[in-house]
Protein 1
Amino acid sequence: MSSTSSPSSVLVETPLRVVGTRPVRPDGIEKVNGRALYGADVQLPGALQGRVLRSPHAHARIRRIDTSAAAALPGVRAVITARDLPPAPDRVEEMGDRTTSLRYVTDNLLASEKVLYQGHAVAAVAATSDAIAEAALALIQVDYELLPVVMTAGAALAPGAPQILPGLRAERMGQRDPQPSNLASMVRHERGDLEAGFRRAKVVIDRRFRTETVHQGYIEPHATTAICQPDGQVTIWATTQGIFSVRSQIAAVLQIPLAHIKVIPTEIGGGFGGKITVYLEPLAVVLSRKAGSLPVRLVMSRTEVLTSTGPTAGSDIRIRMGADASGKLTAAHAELYYEAGAFPGSPVGAALVVSFAPYACATMRVDGYDVIVNRPRSAAYRAPGGTNVAFGVESVVDELAAALSIDPIEFRLRNGVKEGDLRPNNEPYARIGHLECLRALQQTEHYRSPLTGRNRGRGVACGAWGNWGGQSSATAALNADGSVSLNTASTDIGGSRASIAMQLAESLGISYEQVKPRIGDTDSVSHNDVTGGSRTTFATGWAAYELGQKIAAEMTARLAAAWKISAEAITRKSGGFASGTQAVDFAEAARIACDDEPLMVSVTVNPKLYGAGFSAQCVDVEVDPDTGKVTIVRYTIVQDAGRAVHPSYVEGQMQGGVAQGVGWALNEEYVYNERGELLNGSFLDYRMPTACDLPMIETVIVEVANPGHPYGVRGVGEVNIIPPAGAIANAIHQATGLRMGALPMSPPRVLSALLARKNGSKGCGAVSQG
Amino acid sequence: MKSVVEFTLNGEGRAVLCEPRQTLLEILREEIRLTGTKEGCSNGNCGACNVLLDGVLVNSCLILAVEVQGRSIVTVEGLARPDGTLHPLQQAFLDHAALQCGVCTPGFLLSAKALLDEKPNPTETEVRYWLAGNLCRCTGYDKIVRAVLDVARSSAPSTPTR
């Protein structure tokens, strides 16, 4: 491998032939002709159908559960409650998207003493038909003692608030609180003298923001099929972002050795962080065991998906920033209260690191609070925690720039981070492309064009996301005809079969079409971390690169033996192999190499230099003064991909992240009544953007090569969702003169703010002083 | 009480025993075991279950199976030619990378086919309006709309109809 001179760089210098092209994905045909099998498409002979009984109450003590009538219904083969799960110790383990107590994980699967949110599972049934399973649920009698509900961070932390998790005492910067409360933890990062920094400022902006709970909104509901054999061997078909994560969660909860569990991945119909936690899989295993080892299939309804899985945290945020007369930031302070839902683990930790990540500022403090409320346990959602805090930060930065009469991109450029600057958690950045993204946005036709039309405004925002590397393993077999069978176990959620196969083809000097990628089960390769954290094309792609290097080295050795020369005398030439006197193409070399012995290689990696991702975005909106409806007129996203392996799918990530961000900014929210009952648990009422709600989303891919990857790759999946809410809020300000302080900026909120200004009072959506 | 329902599915005759409560979606997926038609919401809001019923776009989760007696249904499995050659829309979705996870794709393909059958040369606004009954959470719709417009431009007469 040739590399650049810097010791921290692994970039290859050879020109690329495959990386950067746009081939059709290997799994494409099955996905357009309906043959691809997703979670609910697994239909095993004799499979039982399962259903889950869920709590109608947001907070209640379970006095008694009587399942006898359900169990006696003809066709019912198994009924389970929390008593059928092994007692869980209060032991902290890495579990899916968080490190948490096994007790909490088990209690979220089936409630034991209390139900903690509407939709919390209390029992499950397996029967010979779905209709019988549904009828059986109605026969289960649960005696609830209702308890007062606590729905927001503010209510949860108020003095005298009802205690949701008995005995929970906060871990506050490493110290355990003496008294129980609904605060799970508090974390701080800081540097410099904060108040001295604010004293140096010419302008200080101090604002409070609120964001509502939203859901990842994947179109495929959770589904699984499981078989538990009498000897304890378990097979699970799962639609998941990580089959090894499913395996380890089930092993921990059900106390089964890892090797006795085989998880087979189906295709996955979207995840965005929400298909890491197990909800159904352990229940299906226990039901199968209780039902004489018949396969059990469980499929959620859309309402179950909304009430019982996913959502990301709602939050209360305070952002205070100061800048001097030259437009340089002097101090930045964030206080973030994130609603974890019923169990600890909101993304507030990640949010702290996102907060002021695009800004170089010597004086900074960020405080994060993880707060328990009677909402479903929150799960990761694309750049977890980032959109909430960036909505606040990017709004305040826009106000600062305006107060100092500085162009908003220019203000961000003056304060923008580059290599060597510190992130909010005081780790230094490696080579990053933040300034390049801002300059590219400045140069777009969109940003340079005049804004025309009434009630219109333009806003910009930027965002940073740390990305991730993680563990991957993969194998590849060279076939005698020169084709290569590639086996990974990283979920392909949006085209990574293609991007990984392309890196193997590039590494080995063959065409993309010669590589056949396959996603194996947990028995086929070793551990792969979840497809999340924007890691798969980076880390599993790195494994593919190394597979190519290993195959080429082994082929060279075998050719050398066949030709009775030293391996050093063989060079690579136009995909083939040559020595001084002879040359063969790749296929002929493969035939010779595989003549006496199969050629298979395996690789395990855990690359650490994953390289942060940045995005800068510009949006034009039109605000209807009569209804408060905000229409997206034009949208441009710039993002640093390091190097775009498959540019079409990079653009797809950028456009998809923007679309989710637009939904979060303008429409999506969980609406609860005072009893904690979700009022909009369907796709009719939980309104995600449709094709009519969006224009074409213009993309500009910036490529500042990541020196920590052979081809310069950075993860591209997540950072794109961080800026939209802030950019849209800034555009609404330019259109209306109003600063919106709450998400979503839906018609009722915007209209209320417009009317309040007219009437001289404060609308429900406008910002408040800190 | 089950009854026999006879209908044409992707050009072939079918007879299926159905309970009155069963939807067309459930019959397609669970009885006939053609799982290309997806269930995303079961109340007509996501379009993942879209099929053509006598050429008209419908949510198969909102149609009872007993309603399709004597009628003709096209699902995603019936889009390609019998020899496997992809429908131009299927090919365009691949060429434009108009899918990521792919679970909404069958519904989008049926909606787009219904649109182009009725209006071979639609504007972008018309495509977006027609596809508004299909939710996609991955793509932001950009590449889907481009794929549909591309098929329209390469196969439609040069002047707009209607």
Protein 2
Amino acid sequence: MIGASPSAPACRRTGADAACYRLVVADGIRIVFSDVAKRFDERVIFRSVAGEAAPGEVLAVTGPNGSGKSTLLAILCGLLRPTKGSVRYLLAGGQELERAAWRQHLGVVAPAMSLYEELDAMENLRFFARVRGLEDAENHCRGCLERVGLDPDRRTLVAGFSTGMRQRLKIAQAMLHRPQVLFLDEPGSNLDPDGRAWLEGWVRAEQAAGTTVVLATNDAREMEWGTQRVALAF
Amino acid sequence: MWRWLSEAWAVAAKDLRTEFRTRVALSSLGLFALTTLIAVAYSVGPFRISVEDRPFLLAVLLWIVVFFAALAGLDRTFVKEEESHTAPLLRLSASPHVVWAGKLVFNLVLLALLLAVIVPLYCVLMGYRIELVGAFVVLLAAGGFTLAVVSTIVAAIIARAQGRGALFPVLALPLLLALLVFLIQGTTATAEGSVEAVDASLRAVVSLGGAMAVVSAMLFPLVWND
């Protein structure tokens, strides 16, 4: 296993342009999970789930409401521990990334994860950029907000945002550090048709750039983005 | 090291900005402290305690006001992150030690504000005369630091529990009892002008604060991540 300190052999911080926000792991990260089970007290969420997502692939996790899609994503991104089974982040050489280092490579959009309502969009992104130690945070935050269609100069607090604008801001937050693994839990929810079209283009571009994408969705069009699929039963 | 401090300050600055916009913790701390102080000043006042008992009894009342005000507001820092569902993104974005240090700084600022308002007011309303003012200020700083360290780690522990409102004082009080005793002894000594007694109390408070800080820093990643 290796850590993710910038001095670790497979990791490096790159130049001064937008790409400098990417803590690069050569050839991306493959996520492999096997025999994953989760239960909360007596309630079994799922018994044995296995799958794999390689760089440049989109793993679509599907299933009816309550089947555990969001729980599986929370396990895969390290927020929850599985009751049974294993999740591994593998580098090109087969080296395993240690769990504590996962977060540096992840971007997550999920309904259960909120941004700070007492801050405006720019203040939110500036905060996440600073705690991630990103350089030139100001310009990069503005760029991310403009990409998702939000005005960086608007001083409205997130509490006053519509649900669609909140979703756009969550996506901006997820792309902020150019992560090599993206977890998208119902990413198109609350977005208007233009927003959905932009989202599809972004996911396709990330896929082409070698990002590993794990997508939980019930939307038929979003399922089509998937190159691999894991179906959960209720 | 510089980068780590900068990231921790980002967490503290974010908390301070949101707190000054909502004033939830500030209101809890301030209102509790002010109402208790007024109740004590009205019922006991500066003249109902005999002169020889004043240094000790007024020290006891001062720290009771400060401790219970702190217990009323310092748990907000983590509880708010959990209640507003912002904790998962914070977990994914910042290292645990950065979060711990940032939250500690936030609690330190709140406590410093509380002490800066309440202590002078208390001394005036209760006629509490401090002989060793410099030592008293150092004792307040050391006591405030230790109180903030304990509050921060206990707040992190209870944030994901059911019934967290009641849990905070229940878990924090046993950890803070020794501190309370040392601070009362030290404050009594500063009022009496006993340098040796102040020195002993100050050493005990600083040792306790240092030990708590080390244990908290080691324990926090386990509490925060699992």
